[in-house]
Each structure stands twice: as structure tokens, then as C-alpha cells.
Amino acid sequence: MMSPDPLSNNLYEGTDRKFLDAIFETVHNGLQVLEVKYDDQHKVVDFKYVLANNPLPGNDKNSVFSAQPDARKGRLFRELNRVIETGKPLDDVLQYGDEEPANWFHIKAQKFGDYILISREDLTGSRHAEEKLTHLNRSLFTKNRELETMSSELKTFTAIAANDYNETLRNLYTCLEFIISNDAKNLSDPGKANVRRAQAAVQKMKLLTDDIVSFSKITSDEPVSRIELNKLVAVVLNNLNKKIAENQADVTYADLPVINGYPLLLSVLFTHLIDNAIKFRKENVRPKISVEYTKQDGVDIDHAAAIKDINYDIVSIIDNGIGIDIKDIEKIFTMFYQLNEKGKSKGSGIGLAICKKIMNLHGGFIVAGSETGFTTFSCYFPIEKN
Fold first, then answer.
1. What does the pLDDT average to over 275-285?
2. Alpha-carbon span 251 to 268, nearest angstrom
3. What CA–CA distance (Å, rounded) separates 233 from 378?
């Protein structure tokens, strides 16, 4: 038995129509069968819906273009007209309708006598996503240009600070020393004291400048490598050997992990943390410092920077020093913030800011904690998934 002509009169009644309706309703993409409407001169003026599971937006039930008078001048009408005139199929992405934002469709059309068979895929969502992505990429490009400019300016400042500015400070200090050495007899005691205070201020400015230069030079330019932290910490302790001996510090470590990182930056990190543990000791108490290791799931870590679906290697430096007031826990990683009284210990308050920046460059973070009897600085290194 031959299949019935889908466009014959029995399309509108009986089993054949129900069968076609069922097919159309089960197809995800828009499907339409359109009948061509001609004027008296046999010119295409419109298209009438014969079957449609999802009519084009903005049309009434019986006509494709009557609901939009200007649509006949649009590309879709011209393309469908071309299919009728030439018999060549259509396969293209078209914008259709006057809605804002615009609707985009991938349309395939094939002539079948005085009918057109159309398959339509709605690309509106993906097109709008592409437009947003394009806009974001332009914004990102602009921001990158701004960052490149700022980076260049920062490098210029660093070069000036590291050379010209430091040289000026050295000259100023030398001039003040010359005054003390050669003109002391002409200065009153308060005058001499003022010169010495000026020299101390110059030294403080030089220390601050050196630290700013050091901070700005912390980058991830060196290649990442596999680092055995046991060996790295051993080298750090060897470099700090004189200070450890002078303070009779007891420093222990064992079973530290192997991680991916930047060797030089990690040396700076552990040097700062162990040096601080020695520096901020309790009076008349022998410093005891331990470098310990644990592993933890990101889901269990209560910190804004923790990524929940990975694990972390946690390396902690624990000491029995002076401790940290809970109100200062977050502030201590800010540049130039100093816990101790000004002038009580040498430094500009940039060391922990450097530690934070190094951990950021490793994709991790650092957390401080203080309880009765000991202080902890925990460095969280993300464990890369295989």
C-alpha cells in the first residue's frame, strides 16, 4: 500500500493527519509545512501554515508574514521566495522578528511543489551568550591593556626606587654623617640629636623602599617544579642557622609533602615565617618552632578562598611566641601593618604580605591562628587532580 500524499486533502482529516501531528509534536526542532500564497500576477505574497509544531514568533495561526507587515522586506521572506523561484534549498542562520533582543534561527527549507518544508533550530540563547562573551572579551581585553600599563608603570617605579631613590637616600645619610663627623663641635646637643633622628628616618625610608621593591618583584616568572619541602626547609634552616643559634631556638620538621611550586618563592615564604617565629619570641623563653603537615578536603575548610572540590596540603609553622590578638588576625597580612610597637623591632611590616602574595601565586592561601601558648601560620597548597 502506498503512503498517502502528506499534502493531499486527507492531511486535514482522519488517521493521516493525526499521525503527522504526532510526528510533529515529538520533534524538538521547529517543523513547518508552508503553502505558498500568490497574488493575481502569480507573485509570492505570503505563506500559509499547513502543519507546524512551533510557528515562528510574531505570526498568527494561518500566516507566516501577515502579523508583520514589514517582514516581507526582510531576509527570511526573500530567502523563502528564492527557494520557490529557483528550487534551491535554504540552509542558513537568519535573524527573524523585531523583538529585542533579536531571535536567531538555523533554518533549512526545501521546495515541494507549491509547498515549503522547513526545519528550524532556535539559536537565540546561544547567540546571546556569544554576544555576551564577545562583550566580556572586549572588556577583558581593555582591562588587560590597563593592567599591562599599570604593570609597566610599576616596573618603572620599582626601577627608580631600586636605583635612583635608594641612591638619593644613601647620599642623604652620608651627608648627615659628614655633618656629625666634621661639624659636631659647632652643633648643640639637641642639634646632634636631631641629625641622628634624621639619619634614623632615612634608614627607615631605605628599609621601606627595599621591602616595596622586594614585594613588587614577587612574580611567578620562574618555572613550576616538583619540590620536596623537607629538603627546602632544611636549606632555609641552614641559612637561618646563625639566628637560630643566637636565640637558642629549637626548630623541628618531618614528613613534609612534595608539591608543585616555585622554589625561590617558597624559600622566601618559609624564611619569613620561621624568622618571624624567632623574632617574636617571649622574653626569657626559648623559642620552640615546629613545621608540621596535614591534608584536608576543601569542603571541610571554612575559608572564602577554599575550593570545595579539591584537597589541600597544609603546612603549618607553629611557635610558642608572643601570640596574636584575635582582632589582628586578618590585619597582619596587610602591607605595612605591624603588631609590635613601632621601633621595637626592625622591619616595615611587609613580610606577611609577601607570604600572602606567594601563597596566592601558588593558588592557595595562608591562615593565622593563635591560642594560649602557641601561634600557627597554616599554608594551604591545592593538590592538583590527576
1. 89
2. 17
3. 15
Global confidence as pTM? 0.55
Other CB atoms within 10 Å distance of the CB of residue 156:
10
Q: Taking 80 as the threshold, does the pLDDT of residue 18 lie above it?
A: no
The Cβ of residue 281 has, within 10 Å, a number of other Cβ atoms equal to: 20
Cα(233)–Cα(85) distance, rounded to whole angstroms? 81
pLDDT confidence of residue 178? 83
Which residues have a Cβ under 8 Å from the Cβ of 383 and sit 6 or more positions away? 295, 310, 311, 312, 313
**Residue at grid coordinates 494561518:** 62
Strand 250-253 relative to strand 258-261: parallel, antiparallel, unpaired? unpaired
∠ CA(337), CA(285), CA(328), 5° rounding? 20
b/e burial code for range 253-272 (CB count within 10 A of at least 16 → b): beebbebebbbebbbbbbbb
DSSP class of residue 100 equals S
Contact 215, 353 (CB under 8 A): yes
* pLDDT tens digit sequence for 36-51: 888 888 888 888 888 7
pLDDT in tens, 140-163: 887 878 777 766 666 666 666 666
Q: String of b and e for 93-126 (b: at least 16 CB within 10 Å)?
A: ebebbeeeeebbbebebebeeebbbbbbebbbee
Q: Phi and psi at residue 319, in whole multiples of 5°? A: -135, 165
Q: Which residue has the higher pLDDT, 16 or 375?
A: 375
Report the alpha-carbon distance of residue 231 to residue 240 in Å, rounded.
Answer: 14
Residue with cell 642557622: 241
CA-based diameter of the chain, in Å? 128
> Grid coordinates in use for 297?
578536603
